[in-house]
User: Fold Family 65 glycosyl hydrolase from Algibacter marinivivus.
Amino acid sequence: MNQDYIKPDNWSIIEEGFDASRVKSSESLFSIGNGAMGQRANFEEEYSGDTFQGSYIAGVYYPDKTRVGWWKNGYPEYFAKVLNAPNWIGINVKINGESLDLNICKSVDDFKRELNMKEGWLSRYFKATLLNDIQVEVFVKRFLSLDLDEIGAINYEITPLNSDAEIIFQPYLDSGITNEDTNWDDKFWDTTGISHKNNQAFIEAKTMKTDFHTCTFMESKVYISGKPILVEHNTKADSNHVSFSYAYPVKKGETYSVQKFGGYIVDRNHNKSQLVKVAKQVLKTATEKGFNQLLEDQKNAWITIWKMADITIEGDVKAQQGIRFNIFQLNQTYLGKDSKLNIGPKGFTGEKYGGSTYWDTEAYCIPFYMATKDQKVARTLLEYRYHHLDKAIENAGKLGFKNGAALYPMVTMNGEECHNEWEITFEEIHRNGAIAFAIYNYHRYTGDYSYIPEKGLEVLIGIARFWQQRANFSSDKNKYVILGVTGPNEYENNVNNNWYTNYLAKWCLDYTLDQIEKVESEFASDFLRIAKKVKLSKKELALWKTVADNMYFPYSEKHQVYLQQDGFLDKELISVEDLPKSERPINQKWSWDRILRSPYIKQADILQGFYFFEDQFSDEALERHFDFYEPLTVHESSLSPCVHSIQAAKLDRMEQAYAFYLQTSRLDLDDYNHEVHEGLHITSMAGTWMSIVEGFGGMRIKDNKLSFNPKIPKQWKEYSFKVNFRNHIIKVNVTQKQTNFEMIYGENLEILVNKKSLLLKNNVLKAVS
Amino acid sequence: MNQDYIKPDNWSIIEEGFDASRVKSSESLFSIGNGAMGQRANFEEEYSGDTFQGSYIAGVYYPDKTRVGWWKNGYPEYFAKVLNAPNWIGINVKINGESLDLNICKSVDDFKRELNMKEGWLSRYFKATLLNDIQVEVFVKRFLSLDLDEIGAINYEITPLNSDAEIIFQPYLDSGITNEDTNWDDKFWDTTGISHKNNQAFIEAKTMKTDFHTCTFMESKVYISGKPILVEHNTKADSNHVSFSYAYPVKKGETYSVQKFGGYIVDRNHNKSQLVKVAKQVLKTATEKGFNQLLEDQKNAWITIWKMADITIEGDVKAQQGIRFNIFQLNQTYLGKDSKLNIGPKGFTGEKYGGSTYWDTEAYCIPFYMATKDQKVARTLLEYRYHHLDKAIENAGKLGFKNGAALYPMVTMNGEECHNEWEITFEEIHRNGAIAFAIYNYHRYTGDYSYIPEKGLEVLIGIARFWQQRANFSSDKNKYVILGVTGPNEYENNVNNNWYTNYLAKWCLDYTLDQIEKVESEFASDFLRIAKKVKLSKKELALWKTVADNMYFPYSEKHQVYLQQDGFLDKELISVEDLPKSERPINQKWSWDRILRSPYIKQADILQGFYFFEDQFSDEALERHFDFYEPLTVHESSLSPCVHSIQAAKLDRMEQAYAFYLQTSRLDLDDYNHEVHEGLHITSMAGTWMSIVEGFGGMRIKDNKLSFNPKIPKQWKEYSFKVNFRNHIIKVNVTQKQTNFEMIYGENLEILVNKKSLLLKNNVLKAVS
Assistant:
């Protein structure tokens, strides 16, 4: 744990006291989003201290140049990256001519920030004494509407406490923004038009190269003691900036406030010639409702989300706050409405990692969305990859693979690869397996097979072809090997026979062969269509089987464990415990070569495989591998502790499971890896959900039935969660004594609890102790 | 072989006929240099076609930003790179108002370029018909003076053939140049002053950041039919450019010419406030001599070089041309006068590879300079590394090594690392061994031990410390292993137990222990000084010995060969012969991951080790390893064929040795690897010299004696070379029947020929058949 300043609270994220060194961290932690856009919790008014200003529009990206010192064949020429968007939240404040700037004023008192997750808003309160000795009290509330997802609203109140003062509000729009991660000094936005009238202003800007047209807009209105007043305002506009100035002589103790509505209209959703017009309509709808009604709607929209997605924990505020923070941020990032969107590892909270889609979606996020939303959402996420199949085939082609082999990109926005480190781009190929696994997982959970004949099988075939070609026969081992890969543990690069990769490759081949057989016999017309389209031959299938049947897996007889890769045992196996704290995180303290030859594991690798394919290994084998690999794992990936938490729970090591749970759920809140200032770890938050539902709740699908094996950490009085399973909604409540199951929606359903059958009936509570 | 347009000639490089697609290749091949500066063979007059303009000043570099998409700890923040320098050779030509530009004129006839290696000058002849139908004949001669190494001279003659014409010569200076390899759009040069008077002009410019101050200068004079004439000239100067215009109405058949002297004065050698003054003095000296006398001096200076360095080959013009091209370019690049300079892989002919010093110097160049120059030159090259020892210790420190361990940079200008690919910078650590080997090699050849107690031992200790710390104990193998390295074969990255690296590490430890013992017993005061300075302990030495004695070497019982690295046998060992030609060079056709998991070897790796430590392996072992690895070697490094040529000769495979000899000696002339347009491969040219002297001549040091085992390719009538050995100069002449040895300088010397003793006396020819 690296920080401890967030106040424990069941429903809110709270910071008290102003500390300039925490500003960037808090900007990440208090981020808000509504699935269509999002923003870091930047101050509205000027702030001259260290800050990372960031607003992001879903699906608006930029193809940045790929430049490396030493070019490798196969690198993308351009890669799409998350793009910092024009700023509409800005409201500069002048008090008797002095700018309100928390970085330079004499004192900041009673500073408090709150992110209210129950109702979906962000607020800030403080008293500030300016250099001119005027003390003011400020209260700001802001939210991005879930209902009208193109707009957000700000209410900014200021009260001079010790004297009258002339206060000027300067709400503005700014399209002269750059990316924090801009490497190559490119300009991303072209401002194409600025207009303003009365209290409204509009900046039209388009992204260079990708030509996304956007209109960033605002409307402002000022109030005294909550009553609208008419103030003549000045307007200033230049090439990428427009601001209004509302000056008013405010009496001591009187509250002067501005309400600002703003947001984006994007040609992803509207005709590009109509953007300003649409913006005006959206403003009209919003202002007619008014700030308070919009806020009321916001609360109700979040109530609906929480009704299905909430997890309650009694007796452990930090744990409760952690899980809600995770669920809240996931819902702020992705709501499953748009099939072209996906879940970026940093959501709308930062730029690191460039693209939007990683294997995180398939490996970590789909279970959360399957169980807390309509199953269409998960299907939409699968279809995202189906739409990218041609590009994945192209991508494999660039690396020399033939005959329809598909390699999905490591990082992408539009199906094209967005990353150019050879050891990742070309070698971290296990991602291909996660995409196949998600298809299997979707069918397993939802029971909906139709996706496979309709779309999934083509994806599986492309992936199977890749694996068959990527493996080669080693006459030395008399087996098929997979050389030169990077596994999920990115702290080993270009290794041979990474067990996880080999296992997944074999599984993909076997699974695809099974699905071909099933589709051929049960969906004949689909089969004919696909077989013709992808030119399947019996000979090819036989080759897949040969490779799958003869795959090599490195194993240590001495340790009775599979080896992470061929050379693993040559390393000095000193456990993390024996590593001085001052050396961690190793990715910030050590040079890369030292990391690579160390035994330290960034994230679950073999254990990730045991998680995916749990049924294929005994509990004893899991325990042996857990005991061998866990002590070497540094968890410097956000995706690691959740898997360990689930497995520790399965092994009845509840203390360990609980510690990992806290780590995954409070990874950002407590900044375990010293990096929260760069943004939040959104995708791993779905892993946190899994660590409760699958870890403590022991939820699985067994024999096509929903199955539970509930456990509870001793720190908790009780906890509860709901899952949406095949048109049933089941609420599970676990106490130290018993578990209550209640089907709150759906027909009779047989489930398994601790391997025993239990029949659930609508609204009948069943307790199992 | 990729091209075949260079005419075979014993002493010259000749191109006939103009072909725009060859311009960049020829600019490399016809490059000229004098050790202090050098330039590509760019045309003097305007050329709008594809060209790569390059002039370089020895030791003037620029610390460019290190930028990578994903930063790794340990990368240099800045790295020094070879810097393109202001252009002084430019002479634009206007004929009746039309620019002479070979890219756009109607026709170019009888075009001929010659690089005369015997005399050290470059010439160009052509007839051109302009768009205005005027036909002119042009003859240009240019050289960089070896005697006055701050100046070069150009004689540019033009004759209108079919009509009178007004011809304008516009000699100019230009400091507005950029690097071909500029990645980050930085500006490198700041022009600080421009002045001109009469026929002289001066541009003072300094490099950004490194603050090298230079004066680029010129003086021009025009002639009609060889007689100086006074022509009023216009002068144009702007912020980084100055030009004179000499217009003259030239009669049909009359020759109008300009002589231009130009060059650089640099504050590496002069007080920076005196640069223009020094330039004027240099111009005075040069113009007083005049073009013809300077050219005469040039010829004589080259005669002196060739007298010692020439290798003659009778009966094979291409082979003769090849070796002289190599010797010529080496002498153009480095003459051993300045201890801060070194030998860049591209010399003054291009920018690729950034820095100036690689392990090439120690592994390939030192033998050439030891045998063809005074031994001080080789000692100067060793001292270059001694001067960088502190920076090598700093560099190792950045990677986590302690206690005075030294890791020399992969690429450097000033001792700092210039490269930032982790698999090279952090992992291609065998370079450290080459630096130790060169110390051993210097002593072996020159017999001069004094360097070791004076300076070399400190370097050896730093290197030994690195190896001991870099190895780790594998309990699995019960041996010390070296994980995560890149060997000389850069087509494998991050491998474990690269045999060459492990062998070199062990050798360094053993050799350093031996030298410590010797210095302790024979140079006691040196030993005390060093032991105190570096804080040596008996315990540390014991640890070195443990690591050296227990080093692991991967070996295949089945193939009876050492393995290049632990995973080598898992690869599909398909020989290069069976690889379609269309797939080669693989570094241009394949993605990096495919290269890495292929068995193809970029350059001698295990065989490089067998070359260094020949005496430690039997001929049978050499043959086995050669037969195993050679068929997998693609020789896509220029440093590869020479080693294979030497070893093929040793194995009496003269056809193969000859083929490799042609490949190494004509690598650039015939452009084997499709890349000569980027510059020449200077350092490997010393390898070409070795392939004759050590390969065919069989020269070695055995039992502290010079030893030969001469062979001759059947294609040759005879060949000869000279070596400078411990104050003796010996000429060796090998025919198909016998070998003649003649000591042309020095006292009586016992040498070995085919393992038998032979006493050489001054000027007495001894024949051995």
User: Anything to note?
Assistant: The two ends of chain A are 35 Å apart (CA to CA). Chain A touches chain B through 49 residues (CB under 8 Å).
